[in-house]
# Entry
Amino acid sequence: MISWLTLAAGWAFEIAAWFALVKGRFADTVKLCEAGLVRACVSNAGVQLTLQASSGYARMGDSRAGQMLAAGRDLLNLLPEPEHAEHHFVLTAISTSSTPRRSTPGLVPTTRRLKRMHAR
# Structure
């Protein structure tokens, strides 16, 4: 099991990489992700770091973007299924409906989405 300190370090690098990405500092994004991956090990933070690195590489036109996506998929496959799927969220299209929502617009609990997918 990964320690909370290791996981926190991975997420710290991920958020720094995200800020670099949205500020257009793509080389910094990749450097931060690579440094974070050393610390994050096999974790959700590690998966996210590979995706951020992929975005940085893609925006620089670097072919390593695809390699990082594949690495993220491989890392994700090593993780166990979440124990409490109801605590996880997925991004969905934001509704333009005037109906009030209980959750943040654009976020729907995973289990609700899975039920809709299986009902089809």
Summary: Residues 91-120 have pLDDT under 50 and may be disordered.
